[in-house]
């Protein structure tokens, strides 16, 4: 690297010849630049974590909103039932 930047490289190495007499080993190898693949994997990991975080926030929001809506509706339904089931006018007037 002339610019000093690190890159991901995958290396394949195959032993071609092993000569014990002459103590020679012949190797054939290939280096493959996988930097783009690794950067893409990192970007996908970050996007996945962001999506999971957004999903958790959405779930918390819906839970809170459900509670905030349900609480006053329970009061309205409860008072409606009291008005409907009031036996006489005095009971009905006391709920106003």
UniProtKB/TrEMBL annotation:
The record ties this protein, via CDD domains, to: HisKA (cd00082)
Domain PAC positions: 1-46
- Residues annotated as coiled-coil are none
Keyword presence, ATP-binding: no
Sorted UniProt keywords: Kinase, Transferase, Two-component regulatory system
Q: What class of enzyme is it?
A: transferase
Reaction catalysis annotation = ATP + protein L-histidine = ADP + protein N-phospho-L-histidine
A molecular function annotated in GO for this UniProt entry is: kinase activity
Q: What is this protein called?
A: histidine kinase
């Amino acid at each position: 690297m002339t610019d000093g930047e690190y890159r991901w490289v995958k290396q394949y190495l195959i032993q071609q010849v092993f000569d014990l007499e002459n103590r020679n080993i012949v190797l054939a190898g290939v280096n493959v630049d996988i930097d783009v693949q690794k950067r893409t994997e990192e970007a996908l990991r970050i996007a996945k974590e962001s999506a999971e975080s957004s999903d958790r926030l959405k779930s918390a929001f819906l839970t809170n909103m459900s509670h905030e809506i349900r609480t006053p509706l329970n009061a309205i339904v409860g008072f409606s039932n009291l008005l409907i089931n009031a036996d006489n006018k005095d009971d009905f007037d006391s709920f106003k």
